[in-house]
């Protein structure tokens, strides 16, 4: 049976991992609320961790929730009929469609090597995402999510609401909810975030599809 201090350490580690892995905040305006409504979406999971492996498995749980948020938002955009979709003949042609004031480029890892090789003299590396022309963030997303697409948008084109939770062991306000229950031979854990897409300015988002 896990001790309370060990459970608190678990909470702190998952929270740190979640905050370190956040990507939705890089592509959208995010505000927090004390309570969301029934139309919000829960992202997370519940599982039981055997006590003998409890200390070694929880490092990536926060990241899984953060990735789930990004996947949810991108999937919503890809299915959105109101967003302009444009076919382009090759990957680097996306630069011709960067017409917004503050472009953010979200590209499939399918094109990562090609784009970064062809545009290497125009990409600046530093803290955070690589910057095209030293200004515009280049955010890579797994091919299984984006396929052969590149999204160009402005950050404030999307407004997202996230619920705030008071953590049961740290007593701090967090954007991820963690509940742990110590069992005789392990720990039952639940971790989730609750988000809602409040607004989308469709005219400030483009989805480019590379013709193969």
Describe the secondary-structure layout.
Elements: H1 4-21, H2 24-27, E1 29-33, E2 41-50, H3 54-57, H4 61-79, E3 84-88, E4 103-108, H5 112-118, E5 123-124, E6 131-132, E7 136-141, H6 143-146, E8 149-154, E9 158-163, E10 165-166, E11 173-174, E12 177-183, E13 186-200, E14 205-210
Parallel strand pairs: 1-9, 3-14, 4-7
Antiparallel strand pairs: 2-13, 4-8, 5-6, 6-7, 8-14, 9-13, 10-11, 12-13
Helix content: 25-40%
CATH topology of the largest domain, by name, is Major capsid protein gp5 fold
CATH architectural type of the largest domain: 2-Layer Sandwich
Describe the largest sheet. Answer: 7 strands, mixed
**Rounded Rg:** 19 Å
Q: How many helices in DSSP terms?
A: 6
**Structural class by SSE content:** alpha+beta
What's the quick description here?
This protein is 26% helix and 38% strand. By secondary structure, it is of the alpha+beta class. The chain folds into two domains: 4-77 and 159-198, Major capsid protein gp5 fold; 82-156 and 202-210, hypothetical protein PF0899 fold, CATH 3.30.2320.
């Amino acid at each position: 049976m896990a001790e309370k201090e060990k459970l608190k350490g678990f909470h702190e580690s998952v929270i740190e991992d979640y905050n370190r892995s956040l990507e939705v905040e890089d592509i959208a305006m995010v505000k927090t609320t004390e309570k969301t409504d029934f139309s919000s979406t829960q992202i997370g999971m519940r599982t039981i961790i055997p006590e003998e492996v409890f200390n070694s498995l929880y490092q990536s749980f926060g990241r899984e929730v953060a990735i789930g948020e990004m996947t949810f938002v991108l999937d919503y955009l890809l299915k959105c009929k109101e967003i302009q979709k444009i076919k382009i003949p090759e990957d680097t042609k996306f630069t011709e469609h960067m017409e917004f004031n503050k472009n953010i480029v979200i590209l499939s890892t399918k094109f990562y090597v090609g784009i970064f090789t062809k545009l290497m003299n125009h990409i600046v590396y530093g803290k955070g995402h690589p910057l095209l022309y030293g200004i515009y963030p280049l955010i890579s997303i797994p091919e299984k999510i984006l396929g052969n697409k590149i999204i160009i948008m402005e950050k404030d084109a999307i407004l997202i609401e996230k619920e705030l939770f008071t953590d049961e062991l740290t007593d701090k306000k967090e954007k991820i909810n963690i509940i742990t229950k110590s069992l005789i031979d392990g720990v039952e854990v639940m971790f989730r975030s609750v988000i809602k897409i409040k607004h989308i300015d469709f005219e400030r988002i483009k989805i480019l599809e590379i013709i193969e």
